[in-house]
Write a structure and sequence with these properties.
Length: 223
C-alpha cells in the first residue's frame, strides 16, 4: 500500500486526542514529503545529524520530535527548532536542554524516558531517580524546559500480556508523578508509548502519543 493509504489506515484506528508521530529515521526526504502531502506534519527522528539535515531541507511547518538517546554535547544543534524531546533520562541532559533552550529564547517540551522493558540495553529512568530529579533544586530553577509527560518502550516480544503490563506500568508511574509533582500543571498530560507492532495495545493502556515508523514507510534497511 502507499504511504498515504498506510497513514489513512493508521489514523482510522487512533482515538481523538492520540497524536501520531511518523518516525522517518533512515527515510529520504522524498518519502517524508509524500507523508507531508498526505497531511502528516509531525515526524520523529533519532539521530541529531539526520534530523538537522532534514529540518534544513524540508518545509518549516513540520513539527520535529527527537525520539532517540540524546548526547548532551549535541543538544545545541536541535535546540533552535525541535518541538519535543522524548527521551530525557538524566538531570544532566535536562540541564543542557534548559541551557540551550534559553540561548534560543525557547521553552522546550520534554518527556522523561522510563525503563519499562525487560531488556537491559534500553535507556531510561527509574522511579527513584525521577523523584530525585523532580525534587532537585537544579530542576526547580529551570525555566526553559517543560516536562509534558513520560515516554517508554516495551520489550520486543510476542507476549501481549507482558507488553500490556509494561505499558500499564508506565501509565501508573505517570499518574503517580502527576499527583506528586504536577497536580497544578495541566500541561503534564502526555504518555508517549506504542510503535508499529504494539501501538494498539499502548492506546488501550492510555497512550497519548504513538511513534510509528515501519507501518507507514515500510521496513527500514538499517537502524
Ligand atoms: C524507530 C523507533 C520507533 C518506530 O518504530 P517502528 O517499529 O518502525 O514503528 C518508535 N520509537 C522509537 C524510540 C524508535 O527509535
Amino acid at each position: 500500500m502507499s504511504i498515504t493509504g498506510n497513514l489513512e489506515k493508521i489514523r482510522s484506528t487512533l482515538p481523538a486526542g492520540v497524536k501520531l508521530v511518523a518516525v522517518s529515521k533512515t527515510k529520504p526526504n522524498t518519502t517524508i514529503l509524500e507523508a507531508y502531502k498526505a497531511g502528516q506534519h509531525v515526524f520523529g527522528e533519532n539521530k541529531v545529524q539526520e534530523l538537522v539535515a532534514k529540518y534544513e531541507d524540508l518545509p518549516k511547518d513540520i513539527e520535529w520530535h527527537f525520539i532517540g538517546h540524546l548526547q548532551t554535547n549535541k543538544v545545541k544543534y536541535i535546540a533552535p527548532f525541535v518541538a519535543m524531546i522524548h527521551a530525557v533520562d538524566s538531570l544532566k541532559l535536562l540541564k543542557f536542554i534548559n541551557k540551550e533552550a534559553a540561548k534560543n529564547n525557547r521553552v522546550i517540551d520534554c518527556l522523561l524516558q522510563f525503563h519499562i522493558a525487560q531488556e537491559e540495553s534500553k535507556f531510561g529512568l527509574s522511579l527513584e531517580t525521577a523523584r530525585e530529579m523532580l525534587t532537585s533544586e537544579m530542576y526547580q530553577k529551570m525555566e526553559n524546559v517543560r516536562i509534558k509527560g513520560l515516554m517508554g518502550m516495551a520489550t520486543l516480544t510476542d507476549d501481549e500480556k507482558q507488553i500490556c503490563n509494561e505499558f500499564k506500568l508506565l501509565k501508573t508511574i505517570f499518574d503517580q508523578l502527576k499527583t506528586d509533582y504536577f497536580s497544578d500543571k495541566p500541561s503534564f498530560s502526555e504518555v508517549s508509548m506504542g510503535m508499529s507492532d504494539d501501538y494498539l495495545l499502548a492506546i488501550e493502556q492510555g497512550s497519548t502519543i504513538v511513534r510509528i515508523g515501519s507501518t507507514i514507510f515500510g521496513a527500514r534497511e538499517y537502524q
